[in-house]
Amino acid sequence: MEASTPAPPPPPPAAEPTPPPGGDRYPVRVDAQRQEEYHRFLPLVKWLLAFPHYIVLFFLAIGVIFVKIIAFFAVLFTGRYPRGMFDYVVGVLRWSWRVTAYVYLLRDEYPPFSLDPDPSFPAELEIDYPERIDRWRPLVQWLLAIPYLIVAGVLVAVAGIVAFIGVFVILFTKELPEGMFKLILIPYRWQMRGGAYAYFMVDRYPPFVWED
After folding, report:
1. Contact (Cβ atoms closer than 8 angstroms) between residue 99 and residue 55
2. What pLDDT score was predicted for residue 33?
3. What does the pLDDT read at residue 25?
4. All residues at 6 or more sequence positions from 52 whose CB lies less than 8 Å from its CB, including other chains
5. The dihedral of CA 178, 183, 188, 189: what is its sign?
6. What does pLDDT average to in each consecutive run of 10 residues of the chain (212 residues)?
């Protein structure tokens, strides 16, 4: 009897495609870690304790105006956003976000007086630096961003109402429910992304996605 020929082994599985660097993440990341328990009476005075930050941010914002004017012409003629200017604007946005996270109940820790990343503070903002920017973007991106900024503005108004209610929730329970936390965090994420796009710091239109 003739021996049967063994079946050939199955071909190896095809290798999965390697994702591009950074994946599909949006180049503006705004986040905060949720805390389980709050200081009961701190939300009543956070706005007052943050007053020194408001003063510093006022003067930093004046600097941002001049930087953006210079960056406008730099991108228009060279297609590049000067790295030092870019880092300065990101630093001011980062500082502003930390203060917002503090005042709007996302964190109880007092924010640092710093433009630099601080891994010890549980609320951060990062924007990836673009090596090249299309020269036409400074002329029109502020206009293209208007629909997104309108939606973000409405969401931020809702976040303000939620934060106001959250003061009383924390006062009685020492907690901020996760749903309320997200209703404050995500609108400000939208606002920061829309602002970064409007000021041609990124070239991808911000997504209309309610990300957790």
Report:
1. no
2. 96
3. 87
4. 113
5. positive
6. 48 42 78 95 97 98 97 96 98 98 98 95 97 95 97 98 97 96 97 96 95 72
d(CA 68, CA 80): 13
In the chain, domain spans: 28-198
Name the pTM for this structure.
0.86
CA 189 → CA 37, 77, 114, distances in Å? 23, 31, 20
Buried-state track 21-34, b at ≥16 Cβ within 10 A, e below 16: eeeeebbbebebee
Paired sense of beta strands 123-127 and 28-32, if any: antiparallel
pLDDT value at residue 22: 45
Distance CA 70, CA 78 (A): 12
CB 99 within 8 A of CB 50: yes
User: Which residues make Cβ contacts (< 8 Å) with residue 116, sequence separation at least 6?
Assistant: 91
CA distance 129 to 84: 11
